[in-house]
Amino acid sequence: MKKTTTEKIREGFSSIKVSLTEKPTENLTHLYADYVEVISLFSNRNSVSSTDVLDRLRDEGYLLRDKNRDEDQGEDNDVKENLIDSIFRELQNRTYLFKNDYPFEILEGDKIILKANVENNTRQKVYIFLLLASNLSIFGLFNHELTTEFETISYEALKNFLPPKSIIKEMGVNTQYSGNTIDKINQLANEINIKVDEEAIKQISKKANKEKGLDLIGWIPFDDGLPNLLLILCQCACGKEWYNKLSETGSYENYLRFYRKKPIHTLFIPYSQINYQEGGFYQSGKIIDTLLFDRKRILNHIEDSSFFDSLNSKLVVDKCIEFEEDIV
Predict the structure, then answer these.
(1) Over the stretch 136-164, which tens digit does the pLDDT of each residue have?
(2) Phi and psi, residue 243, nearest 5°
(3) What is the rounded distance in angstroms from the CA atom of residue 53 to the CA atom of residue 49?
(4) Which of 76, 137, 266, 315 has a Cα-to-Cα distance from 247 of 20 to 30 A?
(5) What distance in Å separates the CA atoms of residue 320 and residue 118, rounded to the nearest whole number?
(6) What is the reported pTM?
(7) What is the DSSP track for 107-134?
(8) What is the Cα–Cα distance from 293 to 308, expressed in whole angstroms?
């Protein structure tokens, strides 16, 4: 029998292990910053210092090197200190970037602590949800809740990004369309009054019922009924290698005959990709012809966060806020 979210929390939450799993390259400071935020979250109201983080990375084996010469050891220590400094700069920059939506406080430039009263701030809880969804290797027990409800949060952001008269449909796990994949594509085509490419559609197995890389679709309708529309095709990706999902919505340019205007391909990810200091995205070289919604952009377009209270993931976030473990 499938366990409920409450049962998962009760039976398995204490077994969650906070670990990087795989060491990111040192230029991916935003991923290290997420890791430190999770440590701080699980430390509850206790501050986590740069020294705590350095010790933990050493304990996990990520900063251990065998050195025989003093000058090499000194150089190695400089590398470690530079990494820790860059992580805490990134955390400090997030206080400027996210402002009141940020659920952590940076003290004296080298300590991080969960803010007081975060349990009463729904927007900060949404931030924590996005943090958890960015770390499925840690929170894999709740993979279903996080990935499924990330689509719900992305839907809310897209709804507020587009004009009020826009139409948004879910094609993923929460889709309103029925039948197999071919049926769903035909229903979508009928709704936006465009033709399907019969040859391309025939390549899809009749047993397939997944959305084939499309989680959300939004368009701005005209009252003339013509299929020349502004359409946004969206994929929602929580995995660390989210950039491998960038081309998935492109298959719909084969399935559907868009009329005189190609759709805008869009990717929603829970990661904090904005490099505040440099004025760009982390891993920007991997982003090709795509409108990217990262953690900041998603939060910017959550106007009424009350919907979050009805999600199963709220139970997970609440448990993370109250949970405390001596892990540093």
Answers:
(1) 999 989 999 999 999 999 999 999 999 99
(2) -65, -20
(3) 6
(4) 137
(5) 11
(6) 0.93
(7) ETTTEEEEPTTGGG-HHHHHHHHHHHHT
(8) 18
Task: List the domain boundaries for the chain.
Answer: 5-141+314-322, 143-307
* Whole-number Å distance between alpha carbons of 267 and 154: 10
**Amino acid, res. 211:** E
Q: Which residues have C-beta within 8 Å of that of residue 2, sequence separation ≥ 6? A: none
Alpha-carbon separation of residue 223 from 96, 164, 226 (angstroms): 43, 15, 8
**Length of the chain, in residues:** 328
Euclidean distance between CA atoms 134 and 139, whole angstroms: 9
Quick: pLDDT tens for 48-87.
999 999 988 888 877 654 454 454 555 455 567 888 999 9
The one-letter code for the residue type at 118 is V
Q: Are 158 and 21 in contact (CB under 8 A)?
A: no
Residue 181, pLDDT above cutoff 80: yes
